[in-house]
Amino acid sequence: MGLAMANNLIKAGYDLTVWNRSSDKCQPLVEAGAQAAASPKEVAEQCDIVLAMLADPAAALEVATGEAGIAAGMAQGKGYVDVSTVDAATAQEISRAIKSAGGEYLEAPVSGSKGPAEQGTLIFLTGGDRSLFDRAAPLLDVMGKRSFFLREVGNGAKMKLVVNMVMGNMMAAFAEGLTLAEKAGLSKQDVIDVVGLGAIAAPMFALKGPAMAQRKYATAFPLKHQQKDLRLALELGQEVQQPLPVAAAANELYLQAQSAGHGDADFSAVLEAVLQQ
Amino acid sequence: MGLAMANNLIKAGYDLTVWNRSSDKCQPLVEAGAQAAASPKEVAEQCDIVLAMLADPAAALEVATGEAGIAAGMAQGKGYVDVSTVDAATAQEISRAIKSAGGEYLEAPVSGSKGPAEQGTLIFLTGGDRSLFDRAAPLLDVMGKRSFFLREVGNGAKMKLVVNMVMGNMMAAFAEGLTLAEKAGLSKQDVIDVVGLGAIAAPMFALKGPAMAQRKYATAFPLKHQQKDLRLALELGQEVQQPLPVAAAANELYLQAQSAGHGDADFSAVLEAVLQQ
Amino acid sequence: MGLAMANNLIKAGYDLTVWNRSSDKCQPLVEAGAQAAASPKEVAEQCDIVLAMLADPAAALEVATGEAGIAAGMAQGKGYVDVSTVDAATAQEISRAIKSAGGEYLEAPVSGSKGPAEQGTLIFLTGGDRSLFDRAAPLLDVMGKRSFFLREVGNGAKMKLVVNMVMGNMMAAFAEGLTLAEKAGLSKQDVIDVVGLGAIAAPMFALKGPAMAQRKYATAFPLKHQQKDLRLALELGQEVQQPLPVAAAANELYLQAQSAGHGDADFSAVLEAVLQQ
Amino acid sequence: MGLAMANNLIKAGYDLTVWNRSSDKCQPLVEAGAQAAASPKEVAEQCDIVLAMLADPAAALEVATGEAGIAAGMAQGKGYVDVSTVDAATAQEISRAIKSAGGEYLEAPVSGSKGPAEQGTLIFLTGGDRSLFDRAAPLLDVMGKRSFFLREVGNGAKMKLVVNMVMGNMMAAFAEGLTLAEKAGLSKQDVIDVVGLGAIAAPMFALKGPAMAQRKYATAFPLKHQQKDLRLALELGQEVQQPLPVAAAANELYLQAQSAGHGDADFSAVLEAVLQQ
């Protein structure tokens, strides 16, 4: 995803300095006109705004606060925009490191996967320094179709959990609907068609429904990540003392699918858990 | 709804003979060119295809099979299309009465409410005689945007339950998302906006979300009807031995909203049950 | 069960007149001193108090209100005590028939199965005519260890549902505990032993636990009946507008066990549904 | 609880050396014949077997591994029996510290509260060094009625979670039963009486039922601790990939009771959440 996002910035005419743990991954960008740096620190030294897309909270923390990390190259007037998906606590830790070094910080996890990254239609859920958000807005507009500024650091992560919790519930509901329909003598494709015409039509149902009807689950968003997000949303509910009984029931269904070996399949494979019941 | 549907037929140039329990309700249609009949039986005697939109299964049964009912006026070559929402057992009972009288029968419950009825964008979920479906198709096309022929009588009712079960689950999931967001310090309107841009965007969320954010629930589909449909879907699950744990959890939430006095509010008032938890 | 109960009455010195659809089933009782009657009506004509133990609501209704049924032999001063398990509506229908015939009525479903019937340790959950309860008390005391008078007809049936709902939930909880323990590396027998020593020790766990640990489920109370009782308890909840989210989750688990083919096994086979998840 | 347990050991003739953060808490024991020590380390230096009862994992860790802690006074031939309730990870950390110092370790959380501690009827759920379990057995027998040796360190903690999960579920089921009964026109006391006579009779129902019927919840085991144990059991389920749908539903009910302000009441106050639904 990082590659697609960087490409869109180059195409839009921005000067890029790039770094990746595996330097050959930077090659296509260098060929397209970007400069290569030797470390995150060097990127920070040479740029006003640093963007990072990393795989998980541990990697995000290491790149931001490690020895030759971004914080080490930060200075007054510079800003760090982290578009990785990390938990609120990690985002706050990175924020402290960047701000101690004089820079500004914005967590900016994205909603959307590989396709939207290539088409420049991502959604950014940001929290942190408002002035950095304003400065980075033209860049975000190149890579995405909409950016939300949600105030404090951590709110981007929380918004992503909320939205993914709703998504996980919807997929579980859809899976129950398809299964009930089939057991009751209806066609799954008819359900998909009827759902697609009314008030509950959602792109996700149209996109994944036909493959689900054939019990095929090519992975776009792994089921184990959906289950993790449901679990984290329930933990957030615990933290703020909000019961979420429907999400709790859905979470058990995803856990069942995972324990049956579908963790690496697409999250639409929750259908397998419903079928197994 | 019946009035809006009949009006669309008149506008499309069809000759209508109309009847209503309260004869003054026919007045606007008569003024628009329809003929008034004295009973359902008389409508059946004068028309090739009879359409009915009734409030509940009891009314549908009475109008179809009562003393001066439609079956009494049926004959070979005539057909009865019942667009009311009735359960599968009632539809089968009406079917038997019509077919004993020599006619053809089509259950055709609609997906969509008053707005789509006026705009002619309803969806018909039909089951019964295929030849009647083919003959009635031009009429259904005037009143709706799509008709599904689902084979046996009862399948229209079942499809409606399946779709409404998915809808009820989605609304409960959305309500949990809005509540979790607010408790976690996010804005409900931001959730609505983010949801509206991605793979889970559904017209229902856009339509009802902003009012829900203000805890307003102007009734389009009463919560008690949504709860009833969830209950009936669970009973269908019982009948075909299909567990539906997420729907069961959602049903309890709607029941809670209903017992707290929100049964006549819009079904989006399930949010009140989540807030109360 | 009826045989064991009647035997206890004979042993206690009561004069019995007996009837059974299959007359050979009365033979042991006749040999023990009872008189045989040709119909339920004849039993009613010859006795002051008539007791009946029937398999299901349909049989109970037929024997009470059929052509040569008990109501036909009822008269002022006589009473009918029905110890069968029937729903509240059936009990009320039988009550009306008996009282129209001048008799008194008591529904008296039992808690307890074959063992307690033989040992005379059943529990009677009665509703109906208080004066009949008082007159029948010595008989109930012979067959059981305790009788409850719960006022209106229907309350016996409701109490039985409530108790069986709690029982079904407890067994599901126990099954989840055993499964979690085993997956976490503990021994199921250790769980059974620890549970048996503390505040949650219940005879049911001690009785069924060791067999469950070996996945053996010799039927004492069929799983399909437990699932039916949970379903009926949820319907009662619906009727009185009381959400029951834990019972709803347990019900789905029993439904899953049933759909996997364990309906005729003991209700402790709900463990198989947990293991399958 | 520690006081009651120590008293039982003194009464049984054991020589005790005691320490408490607040030294005045040791006074009654010193008056009864115990010697006072200045630190956990000093207790360890003077005794062969050290017992500790601490409030939470943080206190258990500090007392065991802190500067003047037990590990600092450990030596070959000595053993440490921690009867506090700590999580498996903390127990393992303490175990490593004690064993590095040459001692043996036994986690031994108790099932039972103040009453059983005074009466010497606790249940010990132990894991760790078998030889220490054998040596400590006479002491455990003085303080409790039964001790289980569950092999690895951590298993005592897991067993306690499993049992408390079953307990939390049972109490939630009982609360749903009491509420359904009352709404259906039955008496809560009758439910308590009927439950108390049959296969599901458990001391907990008899002990807490009558107070619950009056909505009184004098705290023996705080609701927030019950909710925490349900949450930890669900996390254990997550870890070993075991869905627990009934426990998940019960957990949401306790969370609801807690968010309504009943966290410090007895866990039987889950009834308030059911009543509020």
From TrEMBL, chains A, B, C, D:
- Domain annotation 3-hydroxyisobutyrate dehydrogenase-like NAD-binding: ranges: 154-273
Q: Catalyses which reaction?
A: 4-hydroxybutanoate + NADP(+) = succinate semialdehyde + NADPH + H(+); glycolate + NADP(+) = glyoxylate + NADPH + H(+)
**What InterPro entries has UniProt attached to this entry?**
6-PGluconate_DH-like_C_sf, 6PGD_dom2, 6PGDH_NADP-bd, HIBADH-like_NADP-bd, HIBADH-related, HIBADH-related_NP60_sf, NAD(P)-bd_dom_sf
Give every 6-phosphogluconate dehydrogenase NADP-binding domain span. Answer: 1-148
Q: What keywords were assigned to this record? A: NAD, NADP, Oxidoreductase, Stress response
Q: Name one Pfam family in it.
A: NAD_binding_11
Enumerate the GO terms in the molecular function aspect. glyoxylate reductase (NADPH) activity; NAD binding; NADP binding
Q: Enumerate the active-site residues.
A: 160
GO CC: one term?
cytoplasm
Similarity field = Belongs to the HIBADH-related family. NP60 subfamily.
Q: What's this protein's function?
A: Catalyzes the NADPH-dependent reduction of glyoxylate to glycolate as well as succinic semialdehyde (SSA) to gamma-hydroxybutyrate in vitro. May function in redox homeostasis and play a role in oxidative stress tolerance by detoxifying glyoxylate and SSA generated in glycolate metabolism and GABA metabolism, respectively.
Specify the protein name.
Uncharacterized protein
